[in-house]
Predict the structure.
Amino acid sequence: EIKFLTKEHLRSSLAESLRMLRANLNFMLADQKEGKGKTIMFTSTVSGEGKTFLSINLGFSLAQTDKKVVVVGMDLRAPKLGQYVDIPINTGVTNYIVNPDFEIDDLIQPSIDQENLDYIVSGPVPPNPSELLIKERVGELIEKLRERYDYIIIDTAPVGLVVDTMLLVDHADLLLYVTRYNYLNKN
């Protein structure tokens, strides 16, 4: 079972590690323009290295500092965010991209565990994820989120398997590459 940061775990080693990551992010993002949300994208080489786990937990940690945070599931091929936080996945990013009638408010799902933290799941798995991710609506979505939130955390697909994440990289202020110890083949 995957454990996530909760208010009861604020003194755990996970919480301390996330505070350290949070401090380093603030240093790395210090040059970004004020007044617009900062976009942090997570990727890895293969699935199972902890992208979604870190996205959710960093979102929780940032929200504890009274910042408005949204975690967005943009791994359109193998979405995990909705499963991990127990949110229905029937409406999400894919619906927004393909249907101009969808608004951001149709997608946002507030966290039941942490104030100032929202989620947007990826939605139904489309037959053409790469083609969807190059559409203008993706950039529009991220820009609208920048106006509403202090931090936009994007959980993406592994770069070792598909091109999808590379299509999103221009929208990120910071790309974090996750590697899991003793998991990835070093060759």
Q: What stands out?
A: Residues 100 and 137 are 8 Å apart (CA to CA).
